[in-house]
Automatic annotation (TrEMBL):
Residues 1-68, 258-311 form the PAS domain. Residues 410-621 form the Histidine kinase domain. This is histidine kinase. Its EC number is 2.7.13.3. Keywords: Kinase, Phosphoprotein, Transferase. InterPro entries: HATPase_C_sf, HATPase_dom, His_kinase_dom, PAC, PAS, PAS-assoc_C, PAS-like_dom_sf, PAS_fold_3. The keyword Kinase applies. It catalyses: ATP + protein L-histidine = ADP + protein N-phospho-L-histidine. It comes from Maribacter aquimaris. The lineage of its organism: Bacteria, Pseudomonadati, Bacteroidota, Flavobacteriia, Flavobacteriales. Residues 85-137, 212-264, 335-385 form the PAC domain. CDD domains: PAS.
Length: 621
């Protein structure tokens, strides 16, 4: 007995049949704080047990052995039934503090079977309970975390083909947690279109002894299609045989749908889109990027963005990129500077770049929208050339304007003044009373008429100058004039998304004044774009033909149209406008009409409000 009553961390307490302590080892002294002399022969075990727990102990023993008398001694029942009791107790120490203990109570009997009392072995399990409580708390947190993240965990014993799923994984698949599971259980949920890929992935994981992350679809018990992501680890025995695979499974259906939507938006963008991380590595591209630079997407992923930039910019670009990530904001890149990319063939491409930062779980990313502006650059060159030509033309027009000013002066003063003077003299003549007065007035009439004749001769000479256009004729292609006009108006065409179609097959050429024909095309096309409908892009159809020997051309548009009932009588008048457009001056159609008529032709119009207009020109009417 002495050999087992001295362990220091175990309390061993022996009592007689009345419950009085007669053995109290050193372990008991250390755990309870009492000395053996304070307890032996003086105290019962109940002195350091909690009354409520003792009543529970008593009730359990009576229930276990079907005791019907509530006052029967539970210790006596254990002895009579050769039983024992093992449970947790809250032990009250001498200083009043408590600890959680595991207690085993066993009756002692003599060789003849008579009761000698009881022995109680007590072990402090406070730390163990704390650890168990912490484990329970962590398991609860883990379960809650799995529920929030739509994640579960799994184990697959590959030797006996037994699978264990966490409760949340059962929820994802909508499986009864009590169901016996194996690999086929999981595989039966795999979407039919993904089964081959899943089989190959698991076979490869077992062959390579390395788990390959897997993203695929399942069809749950209720018929819902979900996307899940599997992560795992392959466990082998000492001989390298795979014995178990463990891992996690996450329902990423919403993330996958968001990714598909994002990819859809990315692919629908009209520009090349390149997503870059803080290290300058390309993370994602769209089809427009492949089209612009000539690289398949997989060749660009993970490459530094400088891969798409001419080498002469590479030294400075990382510094610019670092500055942008330090103060990220949506803006155009390199404003005021010419930017170039370089494609797979090594050809440089003029580009515009707009940068937009956005935060993700993986950190800050930047979306670069890249636009090829080759056409705009060509248009700019043409515009510069056109500007030079316009400056030359402006100088010519300046001379013409001076001539027009002189002409206006003649018509407003030198012509009106003599006519007004004649009217006044006529009134005086009617009221003259003597022949001398009439003779004097006649002399004045003669002087004024001479001035008027000089003025009219001057006007005739001016009109002869205007008619010189009919003498400068040459054979001209309508296609040539249209192409030149489109080049001049290329900026306006791009800005308004105008579609211009033509058919000159029935009458491709004309003998005409080149300057006048170019002016006619320019005025009618620019007007069609200027007075476009806000509800649709401009569409202009130009056709030529010959009817009854008369060369004709039609300019048809789908613009605002003109109310001919209200404005038809003044449509070709000088300074007449019919729409509230800031650039409307009422000069273009007037000039066009004068030029056509000076060449012996005629212009007319058919129009419907909000439908469009058709201008018809008869060149030799």
């Amino acid at each position: 007995m002495e050999s087992i009553t001295n362990p220091e961390i175990i309390a061993i307490i022996a009592t007689d049949n009345d419950g009085v302590i007669y053995r109290f080892n050193e372990g008991a002294e250390n755990l309870l704080g009492y000395s053996a002399t304070e307890m032996i022969g003086l105290k019962k075990v109940t002195s350091f047990l909690m009354e409520e727990e003792f009543e529970n102990f008593k009730s359990d023993i009576l229930s276990r052995y079907k005791g019907k008398k509530p006052n029967v001694d539970p210790y006596r029942l254990l002895t009579l039934n050769d039983g024992y009791d093992s449970r947790e107790w809250t032990i009250v120490k001498k200083d009043g503090t408590t600890f959680i203990a595991h207690s085993t109570l066993t009756p002692l009997k003599s060789e003849s079977g008579e009761s000698m009392g009881y022995i109680r072995i007590i072990r402090d399990i406070t730390n163990q309970k704390t650890i168990e409580t912490e484990l329970l708390r962590k398991n609860h947190v883990l379960h809650y975390a799995e529920k929030i993240t739509m994640m579960g965990n799994w184990q697959w014993d590959t030797v006996i083909n037994k699978v264990q799923w966490s409760s949340n994984l059962c929820n994802i698949f909508e499986v009864d947690p009590n169901e016996n599971l194996n690999f086929e259980t999981y595989f039966n949920f795999v979407h039919p279109e993904d089964k081959d890929a899943v089989s190959m992935s698991f076979e490869k994981s077992i062959t390579d002894r390395k788990f390959y992350d897997l993203l695929h679809r399942i069809i749950s018990t209720s018929g819902k299609t979900k996307t899940i992501q599997l992560l795992g680890e392959v466990i082998t025995d000492n001989e390298g045989n795979v014995i178990e695979i463990i891992g996690t499974c996450q329902d990423v259906t919403e993330q996958r749908m968001a990714e598909i939507k994002f990819r859809g938006l990315l692919e629908s963008a009209p520009d090349a889109m390149v997503i870059v991380n803080e290290e300058g590595k390309i993370q994602l591209t769209n089809k427009q990027t492949e089209k612009l630079f000539g690289y398949p997407s997989e060749e660009l992923l993970g490459k530094p963005v400088e891969f798409l930039i001419p080498s002469r910019y590479n030294a400075k670009h990382p510094t610019h990129r670092e500055k942008f990530f330090n103060t990220p904001k949506a803006r155009k890149m390199g404003e005021g500077k010419e930017l170039y990319g370089i494609n797979k063939q090594g050809k440089e491409i003029p580009i515009q770049i707009s940068l937009s930062p956005f935060k993700t779980e993986e950190g800050l990313l930047v979306s670069a929208a890249i636009r090829d502006i080759t056409i705009q650059k060509k248009a700019e060159k043409k515009l510069l050339k056109t500007k030079e030509n316009l400056e030359i033309l402006a100088n010519r027009l300046k001379v013409k304007n001076t001539q027009l000013a002189d002409f206006a002066h003649i018509t407003s003063h030198n012509l009106r003044a003599p006519v007004s003077n004649l009217n006044s003299l006529l009134e005086f003549y009617k009221t003259a009373e003597t022949e001398d007065e009439k003779t004097l007035l006649f002399e004045k009439f003669e002087i004024v008429i001479n001035h008027l004749t000089e003025t009219l001769n001057t006007l005739i000479e001016a009109l002869k100058t205007k008619n010189e256009g009919s003498e400068k004729l040459e054979t001209i292609s309508f296609d040539e004039i249209l192409n030149k006009t489109k080049e001049i108006l290329s900026g306006q065409i791009l800005k308004t998304n105008t579609i211009i179609t033509s058919d000159f097959s029935k009458n491709p050429i004309i003998n005409y004044n080149r300057v006048y024909l170019e002016s006619i095309f320019l005025n009618l096309l620019s007007n069609a774009m200027k007075y476009k409908s806000e509800d649709r892009n401009p569409e202009i159809l130009i056709q030529s033909g010959i009817e009854d020997g008369v060369q004709k051309i039609w300019f048809k548009d789908n613009g605002l149209g003109i109310n001919l009932e209200r404005h038809g009588h003044k449509i070709f008048g000088l300074n007449k406008v019919f729409h509230r457009h800031p650039d409307a001056k009422g000069v273009g159609l007037f000039i066009t009409k004068v030029q056509i008529e000076s060449m012996g032709g005629k212009i007319s119009v058919e129009s419907e409000v909000n439908v469009g207009s058709t201008f018809k020109i008869n060149f030799n009417a």
